[in-house]
Batch of 2 targets.
Target 1
Amino acid sequence: MNQYDPGEIEKKWQKKWQETKSFEAANSSSKPKYYALVEFPYPSGEGLHVGHVRGYTAMDIIARKRRAEGFNVLYPMGWDAFGLPAENYAIKTGTAPSITTKENIEVFKKQLISLGLSFDWSREVNTTDPEYYKWTQWLFLQFLKHDLAYKAKAVINWCPKDKIGLANEEVVGGCCERCGTPVEKREKEQWMLAITKYADRLDKDLDTVDYLPQIKLQQRNWIGRSEGAEINFMVFAGSLGLEVTVFTTRPETIFGATYLVLAPEHAQVLVLLANDEYGIENKEEIQKYINESRNRTDIERTAIGAEKTGVELKGVKAINPATKEEIPVFVADYVLPHYGTGAIMAVPAHDERDFEFAQKYNLLTKKVILPESVLSIFRNAEDVAIGLTSSLRLKSDCWSGDGELINSGTFSGKNSKEVKKEITEFVGGKIVTKFKLRDWVFSRQRYWGEPIPVIHCSRCGIVPVPEKDLPITLPRVDHYLPGDTGESPLASIDSWVNVPCPACSEPAKRETDVMPNWAGSSWYFLRYTDPKNSESFAGMDALKLWMYVDWYNGGMEHTTLHLLYSRFWNKFLFDQGLVPTSEPYRKRTSHGLILAEGGIKMSKSVGNVINPDSIIKLYGADTLRLYEMFMGPFDQPVAWSTESIIGPRRFLDRIYRLAQTVVSSEYQEKGNSNSLNSTVHKAIQKVSDDIEAMRFNTVISTLMVLLNEFEKAKTISKTQFEIFIKLLSPLAPHICEELWEKLGNQRSISLESWPVADQKLINVNSLAVTIQVNGKMRAILESEFELSEEEATRRAKGMPGIAKWLENKPVKKVIYVKGKLLNFVV
Ligand code: ANZ
Ligand code: ZN
């Protein structure tokens, strides 16, 4: 053996894996299946990013470990290739996006292969391939058929630079997520997908999946379930009356509702302005205000502390249904049109925003809830009532918590939490659930996307393209720039646009909008199960075999976009009987971002982007993989440090050197110490556990410690060294294959089974108590001395691996065999 030469070794094994189809998933197998998924990349002109490498390597480690554990593993890869960069490049250079996309994919694929990622390349998918987007179009037609796709005038976020409508999720801090230009509002006809119809289940079913807590929380907040009440207020304008329905989560505060607010966009505001009979006295002022508020973002409008503005509707009064008192009515843009009912009852004493507004416009603030803390002060007072009234006048701040109701008629004295339903009924309202989630703007007036497969006929209206005519492919165009009025470049291709109506054969026109770049990724995980199927998007047998995805790792930035969208598509397809599971992903994790040196963002303009190719060339792919897994906790952002890469490289050099001694000496299986064996088996346990928990940095440090022990030991056995190589192989697969072969093994290490820790060996040097729950071994408790029953019980209960088995289950009995075994009977 000579020097460690990753360049040579890595190419050799990549070729072998490819030739022997080492990582192809079997469509029929006696092994249990395991579906490991990572987000497929957009093949940009910049090539692979070191951030991709982090997530892909992590799942590669899991996938390789699962294969070794005896699973039939699906770990696929593909291209999410529709999108703006290729189109913007086409606008600049005239090169068709299909051409640049193809070139970029070639580069990306070469890069991924050079990393030794164990993808099943036989299942590669490409969202821009007509054979793929045929099914994206077909799926759209299913939504259309079930009234979940519709066209509507929508005020959308409009990026004046990209000339594109943006979904709410694509607006970051009031600016276009892509180019940073401040977003404007525009009213446009858009295709929408009715994701709100699934809001309830998208929220509730989070209970059934294993996502990181912060991922669940973000989705829950985005969906924004809110339990409250709808209550009608009579409104009198001139001699006429009408009803305004408000949504409130605090119906119990209604006795303190001192004015009513309608969003400027509220339909009834338009009615009031349109008809002179309502006798609005300040129409012009109101109209001016409505126009001004149009360009303020939702966040600017609603943030606590943001300047509140509004205009009173002069000549209009509402009646508070609880107090029967007259209250004024305002339009104010801190009330949003698309949430609740777009109208609120304002309770300035108990709602911060109402309080700010009431202060500014000098409106009545009436307390109806007394916090428990204040209450206790007055409990002992002689005359509680007098005390309360004076305290109310003194205290001017706003209490948004619960407490005892006051000034609330017969409800006074009751606990605010307990009367929501009663008060709602008292004023004739009803209990309702609302969601913040909005329907998904599903069209773009651009070129490089899936054409929406419908035809507009002046007689028949919107006619779906017959399924046999799919795919509707993108025509060649000469100009990629959208029109200034915002229509797609497709609109100018007469030969493509003009078609006979599929229903009546009269001249009709194709829809020229295309789908957003979130379409293809909403179902790609389904296509991987059966990527070549030409009869359907995926066959039920393949879907039943592979779904659902066992583990999905991806970026935190996709939590409220792709992750939510794809759950929605999957649920819809489940309802149609087209997929076997209601949720697509059983487990979801996220990796932290990789930042440039110094902790700033990597960006081309700053010139601090690290190209994985150059690292591979200098140090090897195994080193890059190890480095990225070693940088820091997997879920945390970390800064790149080229200086630190040398550490993992030296580690591999040392392993390579040690292998030489192992290979050249006569192995003495019996000649090595028990203590070294114990260290090896502890490492098996630790590495196995840490890989499952994605603690890759400690996986590597454990292996580093083990290597130190090996180097110190006079003799190590071949078996011990082989275990070490097996443990390292998911992380640094090339060097491990090479050494495995050098040790005289015929079969690829990727076909070997995962080492199992011998619990007896783990416990040699330290005292160890086996912890059981109902007689089943659940953990090993190590200690430096013999534990008393009490101490052992206390420590065991504190172990996460045990706590989860005892959760909500009273312990009936504890059986303790001193220093050996502790069994909880539950
Ligand atoms: C009266 C009230 C009294 C309220 C009180 C709060 C506190 P969440 O929890 O986010 O659902 N609201 C309702 N519709 C609104 C809209 N379209 N735009 C802005 N605000 C709106 O919030 C529900 C509460 O937000 C509702 O309950 C309403 O104010 C306000 F002490 O009604 B509340
Ligand atoms: Zn027709």
Note: Confidence is low (pLDDT under 50) at residues 380-395.
Target 2
Amino acid sequence: MINEKLEAAFNDQINKEFFSEYLYLAMKTYFMEQNLLGFVNWFDVQVQEEHAHAMGMFDYLNERGGKIELGAIEKPVVEGNCPLTIFEHVLRHEEFVTSRINALMDVAEEVKDRAAMQFLNWYLKEQVEEESTVGGVLATLRLIGDDKKALLMLDKDLAARTFVAPVIG
Ligand code: FEO
């Protein structure tokens, strides 16, 4: 049976992952309005990844005999009004998620739940990848500046991203 404090921390992170899904859906609407369909695809993949992250923890908590408590999902507010500032928000958000996964790992460590720590290692690695991917797009957007042609080229690149269901844990 999972420790109660750790159970609560997992439930909190499940909520944060669903919020991430919701936030990226909200960001996607900006790119839909701009008709930047490659970016729309990028956010579609991001939304699916966040859903998978939430469900990975949902299934794990159940497997460990924990009680799943789904809370209200906060209203997403997109900070930014252009691709660059929106991606700055994506990076800030991923850094926030990384800090939350680290805090969750701290709780697992505190209650000496080595199985949970091993499970959470996957999420820590995933966060390194997420921050690096977002940082890459952001660096390109900074290079692009006001060049519309270059933005359309990046849009084309982002259209190639595909969702691969992750094997979590
Ligand atoms: Fe679930 Fe983007 O971290």
Note: Residues 4-34 form the longest helix (31 residues).
